[in-house]
Amino acid sequence: MLKELQFSLSITLLFACGFLYQFLLRSSCFFCLTPFKFQQDPEALLSHGRGIVFVETSERLEPPPLVCCAVESAARVYPEQPVAFFMKGLNSSTQLPSNSSYPAFSLLSALDNVFLLPLDMKKLLEDTPLYSWYIRINASTQAYWLHISSDASRLAIIWKYGGVYMDTDVISIRPIPEENFLAAQSSRYSSNGVFGFLPHHPFLWGCMENFVEHYNSRIWGNQGPILMTRMLRLWCKLGDFQGLSDLRCLNLSFLHPQRFYPISFREWRRYYEVWDRDLSFNDSYALHLWNYMNKEGRTVVRGSNTLVENLFREYCPRTYRDLIQGPEGLVTRKLGPGNK
Ligand SMILES: *[C@@H]1O[C@H](CO)[C@@H](O)[C@H](O)[C@H]1NC(C)=O
Ligand SMILES: *[C@@H]1O[C@H](CO)[C@@H](O)[C@H](O)[C@H]1NC(C)=O
Ligand SMILES: *[C@@H]1O[C@H](CO)[C@@H](O)[C@H](O)[C@H]1NC(C)=O
Ligand SMILES: *[C@@H]1O[C@H](CO)[C@@H](O)[C@H](O)[C@H]1NC(C)=O
Ligand SMILES: *[C@@H]1O[C@H](CO)[C@@H](O)[C@H](O)[C@H]1NC(C)=O
């Protein structure tokens, strides 16, 4: 009797184990088939107005180390907020990269609050003043199309969903305590490399209208920093910065150049020079690395003790480990799958 009971218990246990095993097998296979959190509806993801947004308008899927660092550092500084990386390459490709030849793509998609989304401009620009411009334009005849399409996308995304837009060469170091803001490159000159707004802010609607009205693809930045500066002048009468204070007008903050541009574009090479410890960045929220100035292709070199290497170590340690430290870093990463 006892034997029979033991026997039937064992059988039940065996079935239970089998079922559990099947279930685990299936769920892990579910993960292995769709390893990347990329098929997200931007509406659902960003509708709380607190997202951090990056945009890649080229077709490339494997981000270079600096781009990877920008996204990882934002994910660390804003752990409770979604970090959305819109990639053009995800819209057209049916085949997703799914192996070790895409270490940066894999790294980013494994971060809990990072979401890789297809950049579908037609859909994103719908219901904005940019839509009619977009469907009429022949992209292949526009100089600077990669920049212009990025300028347009960021305005529409932040207008629709709210949140903070950042260029992919901006390393986040501490949270931005502002809701509606533009970042100054210098007194009276705004950038469009970082800005943040609550959803449906009329300033951005005005920017989109002005974009179309004064569209000129032959002038670099005409739809970017020049547009933001033009609009700021329409909205506000701003003087020069005094000391380290930000300026305010209506419900808009115009943030001091120290917040994002403590090293000006003329001095961009300082990021690639040996770290000068006097640079503390205590008055900055994030650092813009001026990648478009970097025509000579400077990179982060392991062991060089440059400012940029130290920034990577501190603000994007996974990127540093996997993409800069190289094979040893990759091996430790493979051994430890617990990065979810
Ligand atoms: C992006 O994808 C959408 C739907 O998946 C498609 O309708 C659209 O044509 C695509 N756009 C580009 C530029 O590939
Ligand atoms: C990774 O994927 C790419 C593109 O699908 C392929 O060309 C490459 O051979 C793959 N590499 C490995 C190691 O599987
Ligand atoms: C866009 O411009 C290119 C280059 O001038 C031309 O070959 C192409 O036919 C144009 N496309 C459309 C849809 O007009
Ligand atoms: C900001 O100010 C503008 C202009 O005064 C106003 O139209 C808009 O509703 C304000 N937005 C918020 C979110 O307070
Ligand atoms: C920057 O802040 C740190 C920590 O608060 C402090 O120890 C350091 O002295 C500050 N540096 C400067 C130059 O103000």
Automatic annotation (TrEMBL):
Keywords: Glycosyltransferase, Golgi apparatus, Membrane, Transferase, Transmembrane, Transmembrane helix. It is found in: Golgi apparatus membrane. It is a single-pass type II membrane protein. The chain crosses the membrane at residues 7-25. The keyword Transport does not apply. One of its GO terms (biological process) is protein O-linked glycosylation. GO terms for molecular function: acetylglucosaminyltransferase activity. InterPro entries: A1-4-GlycosylTfrase_dom, Glycosyltransf_32, GlycoTrfase_DXD_sugar-bd_CS, Nucleotide-diphossugar_trans. Its main location: Golgi. Residues 197-321 form the Alpha 1,4-glycosyltransferase domain. The keyword Membrane applies. It comes from the Eukaryota. One of its GO terms (cellular component) is Golgi membrane. Belongs to the glycosyltransferase 32 family. This is Alpha 1,4-glycosyltransferase domain-containing protein. It comes from Marmota monax.
